[in-house]
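Async update (no meeting this week)

Hi team, since we skipped the sync, here's where things stand on the single-chain job. The sequence we agreed to prioritize is pasted below, unchanged from the tracker. I ran it this morning and attached the output directly underneath so nobody has to dig for it. Comments welcome in thread, and please keep replies under the output.
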Amino acid sequence: HVNPYNGNVYITDAYNYTVTGDVLCFNPQGELQFRLNDVGINPNTVVFSDKTSLSEVNTGEPDVPSAFAGKVWEYTPAPGQFINTVTSAYKEGFTAGQVLAYADEQIKKRSLLTLGGFGGNITLGFDHTVKNIAGAYDFKIYGNVYEGSSEPGIVLVSKDVNNNGLPDDEWYELAGSEYRSDKVIQEYEITYYRPVPLLANVRWIDNQGREGSIPRNSFHKENSYYPLWMDDKITFRGTLLPNN
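Output:
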């Protein structure tokens, strides 16, 4: 692709429709101006616009923030029907470190990851600050949008105040529709147990004196619903929303 406004040439190194490619920009003299890494599967469409009327100066190294989160800092799904599949970033024999690395790869490819049952969580990072714009949607989270199958969750946000690039600053819970409901249980705690045999239901108990299990279904019969790379019991703590 050739930019008709300045003559810059854009090419991609993706050679088919199944690989993720980079976009490279060269000036008319053949000098590399910048490279956008992993922008998508065969990114063969480029849109140009004339910005000569603006006061911006082209430094040759534009700041192009991604529209999607591009880093997985932590990934700890709870038991569920998609656990121990690609949707939980798992392949046979994977360790926790390998699951985290694969989850990071999946997010960069804009794939979805399962969180499983209550407590399952993921910590994502952006390559830029997400601005809080009054009266506008600042970001969105993809998930089930089907009637009867919505799975709301708790969302927390944090700013890299200490500028160390790590998610170790204070976190703030966003107030959802049920934030002030008297049906919400704060400081809820649930513990899941590895089933024996592995293809059995996953037993759980909570700090409300209740117990139960995550039952298996007819759609996912081959995989254990308990994360095989985790300990024999796992405990999650957080805010429990009321049932739909």
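Quick observations from my side:
The helical segments are 96-108.
Residues 152 and 241 are 8 Å apart (CA to CA).
Reply here if anything looks off.
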